[in-house]
Specification:
By secondary structure, the chain is of the alpha/beta class. It binds one RNA strand of 77 nucleotides through α3, β8, β9, α16 and α17.
Length: 670
RNA sequence: GCGCCCAUAGCUCAGCUGGAUAGAGCAGCGGACUUCUAAUCCGCAGGUCGCAGGUUCGAAUCCUGCUGGGCGUGCCA
């Protein structure tokens, strides 16, 4: 072969992703034609259709305009002076001026043979590592984690792992909600309602019950207060609808009136639903004599809870002691779930950590004239927003925004990051917009602050995912169910193996865990993070098509071949076997393998894990086809057999590595 | 009212800063197990890319308007 060092000492091109390599080859050619070439280089991309080769450059068309020549002519000029003969076949100009590139087989082979010998599969570390803080998960420790926490946790973890793999200095920080009203609620609940034996037996469970109880009582009083106003509103809106209906009937063809009527009707429906909800909350308490009694005794519970919170924040010894007692319990409980998911953080600096810095933040912003008092609250007014960011309430309390500012300040002092990523749902977009704008005014204008937003997890009815009774779905139950279903499939498949079952009960259980957790994570990661997605157990654990299981299955097949063939993988890697790409399926697989780096680059471009899942799915598909069409162990010759074994090994390693970056594990046998 | 987001095949979704005949998976139909795991593979069928204009050599992609939906909107996080 010998082609792999053809350009040897020239650059680190050997390890660059293919796209980057191709772009560097185009750069000098384009620079000889025009001044600004970066946008044009972006127009080199993987071919959409195999008929157009492996890569295509679409830059001749826009260039033709500037140069006042025909696109075909421009394309031909570029091709004529393009130096790619070592890595591509002769480039072709096609259609309206597309340049089609097909990689040479010997170049592909050289790439692969290099990857075989490299622990990192030939993926280089970035030349200029950045320090990046990734802020994700961030649950309220006082509440059990629920379905709403999956996306932030899983997406954040995948971004963290991927950034780390490509060589950045990444710091993960779980910004726990450990200091807010939730703790005031628990403290109040503990002081008034605790069942001591239950607390001694299962403290977190009892704290959870207290939290819910206090919440219910607060909701009750709020509902009692709010209902009359809502009913009055409903009456007004119904009268409005009646008036609009008359108007509409008088002018049935007037579209505007029709729309006004529909809007009014919709408002009525919304208000009616709201009233029902409030009545439901009231009824739930009043129909239960014990709850009703508690509600009467604790008429002032809302204010009392705020008071407990305020006392905690003010350093009240009793409340602080309770907080110190509860927090480790809650955190340990939370840790259990993270352990199951295989997620760790470099730091868990919760809201409480920043408590001492909040007053200074407000003071500093005020001193710099960035904040001023308005209606008794300290506000930062921003030109691009109608409403200010409030950093201290009328009553003197600090807010989420204040803590976030203190957090930015701390992170900048402590870690001097180049970038901070907040993996938080899209509803907080405006909050982060204001936060970042304020931070920049405050002087943090060098760091890149980014809100990595994501959509809501919906139920199959298209509404935010809830249980049938309307409660949020606990994360732990979700995991259990995923594993239960995975187990059923694993057992079923094992039972139906041609040679009879191969797995022990323990193995099945272990596999079910890996497969179940993977299914849950993958369902999330494979969707574009910015869109809402419909959660479905059936789809998630379908275990076929574009799922983690399909990849895990592909991986298991690679390992199974080694086992059946008694192949020592270490020996295989060091033996220097040549890779032979004779069948289409082999070349397709080879091309896909070599594009791992491209996939990582693209996935990180906009922090979209679904780019990586799409790559892995495509790789697994190419492997399945190869597996189907090319005998490995019974290959026609030793040379082909070795070549194919090496391809299997590379595929297995790439799948394992790719899934690892998504926080998903593999199993040798399933 | 204002602001942000969304609308692509029966269903769930991709579609990268505008590029060649819009792609997957599921569901449907038809094939392939004496075979390294059939959790697979091959084929067929299925779309006026919400509607109407505009920008351009070229628009699912950019702009405007409209329709339908979601979310946010001064002291929650």
């Amino acid at each position: 072969m010998g082609g792999r060092c053809r350009r040897g000492n020239q650059s680190n091109e050997q390890t660059m992703s293919i796209l980057a390599t191709l772009r560097e080859r185009f750069r000098p050619v384009l620079l000889s034609l025009v001044d600004s070439v970066d946008d044009l280089l972006e127009m080199i991309r993987p071919a959409q259709d195999a008929r157009f080769g492996d890569y295509q450059a679409n830059l001749a068309m826009p260039l033709a305009k500037q140069l006042r020549q025909s696109p075909q002519e421009v394309a031909q000029r570029i091709v004529d002076s393009l130096q790619v003969d070592d890595l591509c076949e002769r480039p072709e100009v096609a259609g309206k001026g597309f340049i089609n590139l097909r990689l040479r087989c010997d170049w592909l082979v050289a790439r692969l043979e290099q990857a075989v010998r490299d622990e990192r599969l030939g993926i280089p570390r970035v030349a200029a590592p950045r320090t990046i803080v990734v802020d994700y998960s961030s649950p309220n420790v006082a509440k059990a984690m629920h379905v709403g926490h999956i996306r932030s946790t899983v997406i954040g973890d995948a971004i963290y792992r991927t950034l780390q793999f490509v060589g950045h200095h990444v710091i993960s920080d779980n910004h726990l909600g450990d200091w807010g009203t939730q703790f005031g609620m628990i403290i109040y609940g503990y002081k008034h309602f605790v069942a001591e034996p239950a607390y001694r037996a299962q403290p977190v469970r009892e704290l959870g019950r207290l939290y819910k109880l206090v919440q219910q009582l607060i909701d009750y009083h709020a509902a009692v207060r709010e209902l009359p106003e809502r009913e009055r509103q409903l009456g007004d809106q119904q009268a409005h609808v009646a008036a609009q209906r008359d108007a509409h009937q008088a002018h049935p063809q007037d579209k505007k009136l029709g729309k006004i009527l529909r809007d009014a009707q919709q408002q009525v429906a919304e208000t009616a639903a709201k009233c029902d909800e409030l009545r439901g909350k009231i009824a739930a308490v009043e129909h239960d004599p014990q709850l009703a009694a508690l509600a009467r005794e604790h008429a002032d519970i809302e204010r009392a809870v705020l008071d407990q919170t305020a006392r905690l924040h003010a350093g009240d010894l009793e409340n602080l002691a309770l907080w110190h007692e509860f927090l480790p319990l809650c955190k340990a409980d939370m840790r259990r779930i993270y352990d199951r998911l295989g997620i760790t953080f470099d730091h868990e600096l919760g809201e409480s950590f920043y408590h001492d810095r909040l007053a200074a933040v407000v003071q500093d912003l005020t001193a710099r004239d960035l904040a001023r008092t308005s209606d008794g609250a300290v506000c930062v007014f921003l030109p691009e927003y109608d409403t200010p960011m409030i950093i201290r309430k009328q009553d003197g309390a600090f807010l989420y925004a204040t803590t976030d500012l203190a957090t930015i300040q701390y992170r900048m002092e402590q870690w001097q990051p180049d970038e901070m990523l907040y993996v938080v749902d899209h509803r907080q977009g405006e909050h982060f917009g204001k936060l970042f704008a304020t931070a920049r005014l405050w002087g943090y204008d060098q760091v890149t602050l980014r809100h990595i937003s994501f959509g809501t997890v919906l139920g199959e009815d298209g509404r935010p995912y809830r249980t049938r009774s309307g409660e949020v779905v606990g994360l732990e139950g979700l995991l259990d169910e995923a594993i239960r279903r995975a187990h059923a499939v694993v057992a079923d498949n094992d039972d139906s193996k041609p040679g009879g079952p191969e797995l022990s009960a323990e193995q099945r259980q272990e596999i079910a865990q890996t497969v179940g957790h993977a299914a849950l994570k993958y369902a999330d990661l494979s969707h574009n993070r910015t869109s809402d997605y419909v959660f479905s157990y059936d789809k998630m654990v379908a275990l076929e098509g574009n799922t983690a299981t399909y990849m895990q299955y592909s991986y298991a097949r690679t390992q199974s071949i080694f086992q059946r063939g008694n192949v020592q993988v270490e020996t295989l890697r060091t033996a220097g076997h040549r890779i032979l790409l004779t069948q289409d399926a082999e070349r397709d697989l080879a091309l896909e393998l070599v594009q791992f780096g491209d996939a990582l680059d693209k996935s990180l471009e906009d922090y979209r894990p679904n780019v990586l899942t799409a790559y892995l799915f495509s790789l697994a598909t190419k492997f399945s086809r190869f597996y189907q069409q090319c005998d490995v162990l019974r290959a026609e010759s030793e040379a082909v057999r070795h070549s194919r074994l090496v391809l299997c090994d590379l595929t297995g390693r790439t799948i394992r590595q790719g899934l690892a970056l998504l926080g998903i594990g593999v199993i040798d046998k399933m």
